[in-house]
Write a structure and sequence with these properties.
single chain, 76 residues, alpha+beta, Alpha-Beta Plaits, two-stranded antiparallel sheet, 2 helices, 4 strands, binds iron/sulfur cluster
Length: 76
């Protein structure tokens, strides 16, 4: 099962907690300002993400979600 890691920039206030706790150093704060006026977190190295969900648990604004997604079958 594949995973999809998503950061909702409308809820992220750029506190950097997720960046600090990620054990794989996947996350960084953007240099571009969000519509809300913050510098939101993003996955700078998504290939290193192990989907441990520590960032989701730590985010005080519940801006990070990790979903299990069906991998596309090569049928039909
Ligand atoms: S912990 Fe949440 S609010 Fe803080 S930078 Fe990360 S995603 Fe944004
Ligand atoms: S799920 Fe784990 S490895 Fe992936 S960005 Fe969040 S804390 Fe880092």
């Amino acid at each position: 099962m594949a995973h999809e890691h998503h950061i909702d920039i409308d809820h992220c206030k750029g506190c950097g907690l997720c960046v600090a706790v990620c054990p794989k150093k996947v996350l960084e704060l953007s240099e571009s300002v969000s519509p809300k006026g913050y510098f939101p977190a993003f996955q700078a190295r998504p290939e290193d993400c192990i989907h441990c969900a520590i960032c989701c648990t730590m985010c005080p604004d519940v801006a990070i979600t990790i979903c299990e997604v069906e991998e596309q079958a090569e049928s039909d």
